[in-house]
Amino acid sequence: MEKTIISAYYCDNYDKDNVFNVVEKIIKSFGNISDIIKPNSRILLKPNLLSAYNPEQAITTHPEIVRAVIRIVKQAGAIPVIGDSPGNLFRGIETVWEKTGMLQLAKEENVELVNFENVGCAEVSVCHPAIKQVYISKAIMNCDYIINIPKLKTHTFMGFTCGIKNFYGIIPGIKKADYHKLAPTPEDFAYLLAQLYEIVKEKLLFTLVDGVYGLEGNGPSLSGTKRNYNIIASSQDTVALDTFLLKQFGVNLKENKFLKPLKEKKLGNTDLQSIIYIGDVVSKFNIKNAKLPITNILSFLPLWLVRFIGKYVGKLFWVKPFIVVEKCIGCLQCMKSCPVQAITKTNNSSKPFAQNNKCIGCFCCHELCLHKAVDIKKSLVASFFIKNEKK
Known about the structure:
Helix content: 25-40%
């Protein structure tokens, strides 16, 4: 049985040469690069391109991390392409590519950008309590291998987003909202993410995490706080890598709902005692004591208690998004992204508002608003248990 390797090195800036040296050292930790990356193969590089944010905001994968992978792939004689399906496309994917720096990067490195929506979809059967089939981009079928390049961030709905969560991007466009509706709780959604990972697992060469800068607090977008985590980390086992990073955040791995379906389906190694760790000492990284989302307390509660709260105490204990009218420009992206039409507007106003009685708490609106006009509101009872400054 092969040993699981996690390779992680300190990196505190996006200097081109510095990043390349670190990334090359990491990939060599897994063996000869020529044995990992096959010549003439078409390799899909899957960054996190959540929406039209610039790299300095630490919301999307930095182009210099992607550039380093491109150059290593080319040196091995393979053909890299870059692809993702951002969640916010009302301005067009070209705007996302340009704003995130991927358009300029693709021109400089002569690499194809793949629009996951344009290449079509394929229906794949999954084993999920509420979902029997998912539509995924044919970009996954059209490549020989995949290299996953996520961003290290907190996530208001799931608590954490990195390697496994990055594969939600293989679902194109508005279909993402449909599956949020069918998997409305973090536990339900975690089972869906496990299914998606199982689909891509055989083609996945490795996951390389951009954690030079990321987000803490109410990520994964503008409401999060930029933080220099000072880490680039990788593994050929994405489950092990996410487990390692969650451990650095101080999360209770035994009770974590995100890891539960991955453990049950044995999709990767969650036993950190059995891994081979290569790299800098963990204390060099700046992950410890990072602030988690204000919703994180809910992840520590058993599912029966969450459902009890929702059914019997829901009017007293809730955490919901709300529209900050003063910041809202009336683009209605929040309304378009809501899977249950909980955001609406009146004929007399161009500004939307959230209907708490319909909201399922997926925070898609909060995640995709480009203007920080969707905030998080807590009930008085919830405020007693959930403090913004605590983990």
